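Lecture 7, part 2: worked example. A protein chain together with calcium ion.
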Amino acid sequence: MNSKKLTLNLIIGAVLMSLMIFASQTSASVNGKIAFANNGGISTMNPDGSDRTQLTNSGFFPAFSPDGSKIAFYRSQSAGIYLMNADGSNQTGKTDIAVYRDGTWYWLRSSDNGFRAAQFGMATDKPVVGDYDGDGRTDFAVFRQVATSGIWYVLRSSNKSFSAVNWGFNMDKPVPGDYDGDGKTDIAVFRPGNGFWYVSQSSNGNMSSQQFGLNGDVPAPSAFTPQ
Ligand SMILES: [Ca+2]
Ligand SMILES: [Ca+2]
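Predicted complex, written out as structure tokens:
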């Protein structure tokens, strides 16, 4: 074999290898979307390449469910299989048992029952756990009453970046949740004085507010199943 042929064969081999790797991380659904690993996370697009959307910030090996409504994928950080809706919402993962004590978090890692502790927050803060960056892992977060304000401190699990957001008054009750359904926890408070819920929507940064409840009620947000 001459050197030109050898070079050509090597190039063809490399191309085939890269195609195999790419193919191993893609999945096509019955609804026409393609899911693929990209930029460290999971994305989907139409077969013609349009409507390319990144759904998660981490994950590999996406696979659609037979009806195209769900995507299963793998995360190496937590060595687990995760499930989400085809639009990236409602990511599932195992919950770890955890407590917050005087500014320190203690938890039992569900993957191996390993005991962990980390300091984030102050003794008087309220823990407001959630997945604010939508990577499928819980972020350390606390709500701090400062004068008349409520300050949310969040440590994002995806890149360890830290943010402080002024949202609500000191007498408000923090009620974090994914109210806009984009897979990321929204900063939100319930105001007992007027029964209003004030949500900072993670999807677009807009505020939504709604009156529901009376002074003295205990806010209990959840994804209730329609009766
Ligand atoms: Ca997170
Ligand atoms: Ca959200």
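Residues 96 and 109 are 5 Å apart (CA to CA). Confidence is low (pLDDT under 50) at residues 15-24. Keep this in mind for problem set question 3.
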